[in-house]
Amino acid sequence: MFKPKLLLLLFMFLALLIFSQCCSSKEKIKEESKMEKNQIQKSIPRSMIDASCTIIKVFEENNTTFCSVKIDTVHGYGGGVRSLAEGVNYKVEIDKNVLQKIKLNDNIGNILRCRLISMPSGMGQESKNRMKIVSVNK
User: Fold this and answer.
1) Which end of the chain is more exposed for a tag (fewer CB within 10 A), N or C?
2) Which of 100, 106, 96, 108 has the alpha carbon at shortest distance from 134?
3) Plot region of 75 (φ>0 → left; ψ -120 to 50 → alpha; else → beta)
């Protein structure tokens, strides 16, 4: 019938074939995940941040509306933007168009998906990262 050495060799070949198929599929999944992440990153314009934020409070200073937000999740960054720490509170200016579309006072404590723009500091201003909410999705 079959020789034991031939049977062992056949078994080792099949095991190697099965093992190599498992490894390549894991690598393929990792590559696909990286590609999806890069496409999401590319869809965010320069100086923009896409994040889920909890609205803590809304207030006015010098005829400009601000809100205090806690960054819950950062979904992506456009080019040229510093990273934001998740779970940290930030003071953020609110664009007038956003105020016309959504009443942020009614959403205190709620998590909203926001598009923020990172604005450079002007002369004589603090060097902190200034941000502005330019769009909101519930």
Assistant:
1) N
2) 96
3) alpha
Paired residues of 47 in beta bridges: none
74 phi and psi, to 5 degrees?
-95, 120
Residues 90-130 have pLDDT tens digits of: 999 998 888 878 887 788 888 889 999 988 766 555 546 68
- Please name which of 55, 36, 61, 65 lies closest in space to residue 114, comparing C-alpha atoms: 55
Q: For tokens 């953020």, what's the residue?
A: 92
Beta-carbon-side half-sphere exposure of residue 10 (alpha carbons within 13 Å) = 6
Q: Is the pTM of this model over 0.90?
A: no
Judged on CB neighbours under 10 Å (0-12, 13-18, 19+), 29 is exposed
7-17: pLDDT as tens digits: 788 888 888 77
Beta carbons within 10 angstroms of residue 124's beta carbon: 5
